[in-house]
Please model this.
Amino acid sequence: MREAYHSELGQLADQLAAMCAMVGDAMELATRALLETNLSLAEQVISGDEKIDDARSACEEHAYSLLALQAPVATDLRTVLAAIHAAESLERMGDLALHVAKAARRRHPNPVLPDGVRESFAEMGRIAVSLARGTESVIRSQDVAAARALDDADDEMDDLHRGLFSVIMAKDWPHGVAAAVDVTLLGRFYERYADHAVSVAKRVVFVVTGRMPGASDDLEP
Model:
């Protein structure tokens, strides 16, 4: 019975890892749509968002069935509860990729990004996708050290996000209010995407250690 139950927990982790792959693909395509003014890629992300929503529902249904039928305790309970929270964060990451794609579609055939910020968004897209891939790996391996290492990439994202404000608030910003609003919103989408990825990784730390990482409790692997 316990062997079958732990197999179910493994399947739940696989579902979450698959969601990570889906939201990583979505942000990769959305970023390309943004940088390349590619309507086809934007539409691909938009139409694919429903699959991410369905994947969240499937994860939650699986988790709740384990709660109802198995009454898990200790590490098993942490695993199920963490999966429920992680599925929510991953679905939100999909929504944020969707917002990026919709911005690209809304401005098409014109580019959304002025030349002065394109390089920053290319790097933010790279980091976002890397975080999604890293989180997928952490879910599969339950590697606490790897989970903690994702904070460094999140810090890079935060630095890039802050840098955007310096650009759009400069007195010589030549692109007008609409472009500034687009850049502000898009930067926020990427920054929040990264935050959610790190949140999922922290849930893995919680599963392994029983404690959420925080400033006052520096966890060891």
Observations:
- The two ends are 30 Å apart (CA to CA).
- Confidence is low (pLDDT under 50) at residues 215-221.
- The first helix runs from residue 2 to 36.
- Residues 2-209 form a domain with the Methane Monooxygenase Hydroxylase; Chain G, domain 1 fold (CATH 1.20.58.220).
